[in-house]
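Quick start: read one record
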Amino acid sequence: MLVSLIMWPGLLILLVCHDKLKTALKPPSEVNCFFVEPENFFARCFWAFQMVGSVPLAIFMTHGNSTAAIENAWHDYVLTKQFWRRHMEKTNMPFPQQLGQWDGSSCDWWSHAKGKSGDFIVGDVVLKLMDGCLGRGDTFLEVGRDGFDGTVAAVSRVLNEKYASIVGVLVLEWVRPKSGHEVHSFDIVTMVMPDDSIQLVSCLYWGNCRDGGSSTHDAMAGFVVDVDKEKVHSTASWYSALFAKSMGAGQSGQAGQGKGHGEVGIGSHFPGIRELCEQAIKGHESALQEAPWLHAVGWDAMFSSSGPVFFEGNYASHRIPRRVFLTWRSTMWFLSHSKRFSLLQSRRRKHITV
C-alpha cells in the first residue's frame, strides 16, 4: 500500500509527460474555457498533471473513501436533473419551468402544454439530457431560427430526430438573462464543513460569452463576488490559463464586449446575490438528506429578466479541487480536516444502515 502511494504520483507524471510529448507541436486546445491549457509546453505538463491528479485527491480529502462520491464523479448516476429539480422545488428555489419529458418515443407534456394539439405554441425551449453534464447533449430551440416555429409538433419532431430511444430528456422553458448579465453567470459552491454545517465556499461570475448566451463554457471573463457586500471583489484570473491571460495583471478588470454585454466589472453590484447563496445552502441541506455523501455542490444560477433563477446543482468534484489547491494554506487546511470529513461520511452511512 505504502509503495503504491509513493509510486502513484511518479507514474502519473510519466503518463502526463508522454501524452503531452505526443501533442507537443500542436497548439493548446480551447474546447472549454475552464480547461484551457497554458501555451508553454512545461506549464501544460504541470497543468495536465494537476487536472488529472487533483480531482481524486480533492474528493478523497473532502469525502473520504465514499464509493458513491467516487462513482458520481465519473457519471451522474444519482445526481440527475430530476434530483436537483426535486430539491430545488422542496426548498422553494426558483428554477425554469418544465414543459415536458421525452420517454424515447413520445413526449409527456406538462404545465400549460398538457393536452394541447400539435399547433400549440410553447415558444423557445431547451432540451436537456437527464444525466448530461457540461452542456453535452443540450439543444436550444429558438422561434424563428433554423425553421423552428415554437409549436408542440416542432419540439416533438426535434426530440424524435435527435433523441430517439433516449429516455428522460427534459423540455424546459428557455430563461433569458437580465439586461447586462449573461446566462448561467453565477457559479455558487457550497460545502459541508468539518462541524457538519453547510457553508458557502465561493461565488463567481462568468461573463463575455463568445457565443452570445447559451452557455458559460466559452466565457472570456470571470470575477469573484463578495457575497456579504453583494459586489464584485476581484477577477478570477486564478481559475484557468484563459482567465490568467484575459483577466490577469495589466488587464482592465472588465467583462469586455460579449454580445450585448460587458457591463460587469470590479465594483459591480449584485443586489440579491446574498439571498441567492442562502437558498443554495438550503438546497444543499435538502439534497444531503437523500445523498448523505454529497459534501460539495456547484450551483448554476443567474439574474433573469423575471428575477433570480437556479438552473441546476452539480456535484462539485471538478470545482472543489481549484479551491483545495488554490494556495498552500488552503491545501493544508483541507489536509488537516480530511480525517473529519471521512468520519462524517462513516457516521452518515451507519445512520442509514440503522
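Confidence is low (pLDDT under 50) at residues 255-261.
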